[in-house]
From TrEMBL, chain A:
Organism: Glycine soja (Wild soybean)
Entry GO terms, CC: endoplasmic reticulum; Golgi apparatus; TRAPP complex
Stretches for region Disordered: 1-20
Keywords associated with the record: Endoplasmic reticulum, ER-Golgi transport, Golgi apparatus, Transport
SMART domains for this protein: Sybindin (SM01399)
Main subcellular location of this protein, as a coarse class: endoplasmic reticulum
A single BP term in Gene Ontology: endoplasmic reticulum to Golgi vesicle-mediated transport
PANTHER family: TRAFFICKING PROTEIN PARTICLE COMPLEX SUBUNIT, TRAFFICKING PROTEIN PARTICLE COMPLEX SUBUNIT 1
Descriptive protein name: Trafficking protein particle complex subunit
TrEMBL record, chain B:
Organism superkingdom: Eukaryota
The protein's assembly and partners: Part of the multisubunit transport protein particle (TRAPP) complex.
Signal sequence, start to end: none
UniProt record similarity statement: Belongs to the TRAPP small subunits family. TRAPPC4 subfamily.
GO process annotations (BP): endoplasmic reticulum to Golgi vesicle-mediated transport
Gene: LOC100305989
GO CC, alphabetical: endoplasmic reticulum; Golgi apparatus; TRAPP complex
Compartment annotation: Endoplasmic reticulum; Golgi apparatus, cis-Golgi network; Golgi apparatus
Name of protein: Trafficking protein particle complex subunit
Alphabetized UniProt keyword annotations: Endoplasmic reticulum, ER-Golgi transport, Golgi apparatus, Transport
Keyword Cytoplasm included in the entry's annotation: no
Listed SUPFAM superfamilies: SNARE-like (SSF64356)
CDD domains named among the record's database cross-references: TRAPPC4_synbindin (cd14856)
Length: 170, 141
């Protein structure tokens, strides 16, 4: 097995089992909105092609961050106009939202890396899990000298470790 | 009793028809509340499009650092959402009750025009009482 990327083809994740697999998909974006990683485990419904889906997801997150910063009911400081870009960590940020069919958990690092994990709606608080996934990203991607920042992640070891970890989340 | 910061009602086109503030620190003027309501309408629709399985009805709960936003959408597309303290309980019951007040005091008002801002005194009075009441009593309804 070749370590630290190099292989252009990542192995497909194993077929999801009926029980114990609560992850639907995962995205990683950098601060410019480039999708560094899209990982899918269980997604029966597809309404857009891959590129449009990723752009729509980033737009949703950007707008929700702007909305929560504007809506922050505990801060009396003057907030800028809606849609004004926010520095990472600036203002009130959301960490998850839930619908009747899925739950989206969100984490943004101070360098602007956004990690999004979509799971089934009864998943608990995943903030610590996303921090661990960010640690995996640092260990297997950022520390990989062959990886160019800003390019899509093609690192087999990261994918394998990520799949194993997400399978255990419940 | 958990704090409720504000309540919004949006019509099916995304226009704000009711906004009540119960004590946010930062003041939000009329234009800002209109923009926030319209933006929430769009975000709610986009979240349906991004669902990995079919049958998604949109965001029910948005959890942020300093608040939770609970949203209820009626079958006709009217959205009720409340901004509360993180971890506040019984917000779903409160929104269902607000929906009852909306049907009783707004829709049954012969002078109310659909999709227009709500200016019904009885609705205001009963809503204020509901928000101040102990929410556990809603569970028995």
């Amino acid at each position: 097995m070749q370590f630290f990327g190099g292989s252009e083809i990542s192995p497909s994740p194993p077929a999801p089992t009926a029980s114990g697999n609560n992850g639907h998909m995962m995205y990683v974006f950098n601060r410019n909105g480039v999708c560094l990683l899209y990982r899918e485990w269980n997604r029966p419904l597809r309404t857009l092609d891959a590129q449009q889906d990723q752009k729509l997801m980033f737009g949703l997150l950007f707008s929700l961050k702007s909305l929560t910063a504007k809506m922050d009911p505990t801060s009396a400081v003057e907030k800028g106009n809606l849609g004004m870009p926010q520095l990472p960590g600036q203002g009130c940020s959301f960490h998850s939202f839930r619908t009747n069919t899925y739950k989206l958990s969100f984490m943004e690092s101070p360098s602007g890396i956004k990690i999004i994990l979509v799971t089934h709606p009864r998943t608990g608080d995943l903030r610590e899990s996303l921090k661990y996934i960010y640690n995996l990203y640092v260990e297997y991607v950022v520390k990989n000298p062959l990886y160019t920042p800003g390019s899509p992640i093609r690192c087999e070891l990261f994918n394998t470790t990520l799949d194993q970890y997400v399978r255990g989340i419940s | 009793m958990a704090a409720i910061y504000s309540l919004y009602i949006i019509n099916k086109s995304g226009g704000l028809i009711y906004y009540k503030d119960y004590g946010s620190a930062g003041r939000m003027d009329t234009n800002d509340s209109l923009r926030v309501a319209s933006l929430w309408h769009s975000m709610h629709a986009i979240s349906q499009q991004l669902s990995p399985v079919s049958g998604c009805l949109g965001i029910e709960l948005l959890q942020a650092d300093t608040f939770d936003l609970h949203c209820f959408q009626s079958l006709t597309g009217t959205k009720f959402f409340v901004v509360s303290e993180p971890g506040a309980q019984h917000m779903e019951s409160l929104l269902k009750f607000v929906y009852e007040l909306y049907t009783d005091y707004v829709l049954k008002n012969p002078f109310y025009e659909m999709e227009m801002p709500i200016r019904c005194e009885l609705f205001d009075i009963n809503l204020t009482q509901a928000v101040q009441k102990d929410h556990v009593t809603f569970l028995g309804r």
